[in-house]
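Residues and backbone
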Amino acid sequence: MQEMSTLDKTYGYISNIQHFSIHDGPGVRTTVFFSGCPLRCKWCANPETWLSKEEEVMSLMTMTDRVKSQAIFHRMTEGGITFSGGEPTRQLHFLDEATAFFYKLGKHLTLETCGDFNFEKSWSVLKRFDLVYFDLKHTDSRLHRHLTGKDNTIILENLVKCLRAGLKIVVRIPVIDPIHTEKAFCDGVISFFKKYMLSADIELLPFHRLGDKKYDLLKLPRPDKAYKTPSDLQLEQMISYFKKEKIRAYVSHSDSHVSCDVVK
């Protein structure tokens, strides 16, 4: 286990630590939200994590102590720790130290990632995770760049690499009407899965506007009014498209990121 001096001298940018999370992996979990993200998704529910701020600096000791205080809930529910953001891999050294600490304690570890990272440099950390929620915003490169500000080449490559490396992956798709509810989007995802013979569950996350107040507090323009919450029928149609191709898909009506605090 790391020396106490290492825990006290290792620092990261943490925007929030949320206890009693029940939608970020199995059981009751503690979700640690990292600051810093390479994407700028036009619908982001967590804009406060885009940039790291000095007031968010936290020692690894402080973070681990806060997480360990919830150990009884993790143990009783077969829960654990989820690293989210922002994008945790943007702070790879801190993530490495944090996961090494909890891995040695036998904790269930989950990662929520946008997929934009260096796979080779991250592999020693990635292989510690019991579960990875891997975001898939769009398979079309041009649309992905328009919607997130970045090309999706590395993201798609990393998804293939993670699955082929044997990581347990759940592909998370944010569903925004009309961006993702068109059959053409589903066809693109299906074609991608078939091309690389991928096998993974797909979790659909319906878009909501519960995070709009964060944009007001941060003095940022709210997400486009044209972005709408998909109907139950649209979600059922998406699931049927995937089911026909033997891809298991289901709907999650929760987004734990909504309750993440805004740093003022």
User: Anything to note?
Assistant: The longest strand covers residues 11-21. The radius of gyration is 18 Å. Residues 11 and 59 are 4 Å apart (CA to CA).
